[in-house]
Amino acid sequence: MPYTNEKKLKELLQVYFIMGSPNCLKDPILTLEEAIAGGITFFQFREKGTGALKGEEKTKLASELQEICRDHSIPFIVNDDIELAIKLEADGVHIGQDDEALRVVREKMPGKIIGLSAHTMEEVKTAIREGADYVGIGPIFPTLTKTDTKPVQGTKLVEEIRSTSLSIPIVGIGGIHAGNAAKVIESGADGVSIITAISQAVSPKEVAAQLKKVVLEKSK
Ligand code: TZP
Ligand code: MG
């Protein structure tokens, strides 16, 4: 696996930027470059929603974003689309509970990072048993980005996981911005996953830098 070391992965997950072209206020390439300049540590390509690119156009954008990540040693993860992740030799994939089973994905992508969205302690335990490298917990706060989410759950599950001996890396997701990220890290998450706060910012660089500052401060 490229980043098997749990401690290293926890560091890499600190400021986890997720986006696709429908999320961006400006050009996705520029948005990613600015976000990287601000200090993001991990990137997920999630091409979903109204106007999302498909087929060759999607592959082309993914490949361009991947190259930028590669130039800056930022892991490049693909949301859901396992075939695309394999084709591009991405660093990993992020899947949900309704996507292809983790066991199957692991077989298709040995040695890659696999993240799974989880909403209950049971799902977290199953994720660990089946070999997930990290779990995404949310929505922590209300979000307008994903309409089919489970109910907002605050930081309860993150706290619950951290009250056990389970050491799996955790990222919080949903409605996170520089003003509330501290709460997510304080509850025990290793990182924050963000779409809107960075992708719709006038300055993705500035917002990424603010988020990085908060996370580093609270991770001490
Ligand atoms: N999964 C749970 S909430 C969410 C996803 C993909 C959307 C997060 O987006 P935002 O804009 O950071 O609230
Ligand atoms: Mg999914």
Structural commentary:
Helices cover 41% and strands 16% of the residues. The radius of gyration is 16 Å and the shape is globular. The protein has 10 helices and 8 strands. It is an alpha/beta fold and 220 residues long. The chain has one domain: Alpha-Beta Barrel (TIM Barrel). The relative contact order is 0.17. Helix 5 links the parallel strand 4 and strand 5. Strands 1-2-3-4-5-6-7-8 form an 8-stranded parallel beta barrel, surrounded by 6 helices. The structure holds 4-methyl-5-hydroxyethylthiazole phosphate (TZP) and magnesium ion.
* CATH architecture annotation: Alpha-Beta Barrel
Which spans have pLDDT < 50 for at least 5 consecutive residues? none
Order of helices and strands: HEHEHEHEHEHEHEHEHH
State the share of residues found in helices, binned by percent.
Answer: 40-55%
Supply the CATH class.
Alpha Beta
> How many domain regions?
1
What kind of assembly state do the chains in view correspond to?
A: single chain
Largest sheet: 8 strands, parallel, barrel
Please count the beta strands (DSSP E, at least 2 residues each).
8
SS field, number of helical segments: 10
Bound molecules: 4-methyl-5-hydroxyethylthiazole phosphate, magnesium ion
Basic shape? globular
Protein name: Thiamine-phosphate synthase
GO biological process, one term: thiamine diphosphate biosynthetic process
GO molecular function: magnesium ion binding; thiamine-phosphate diphosphorylase activity
EC number: 2.5.1.3
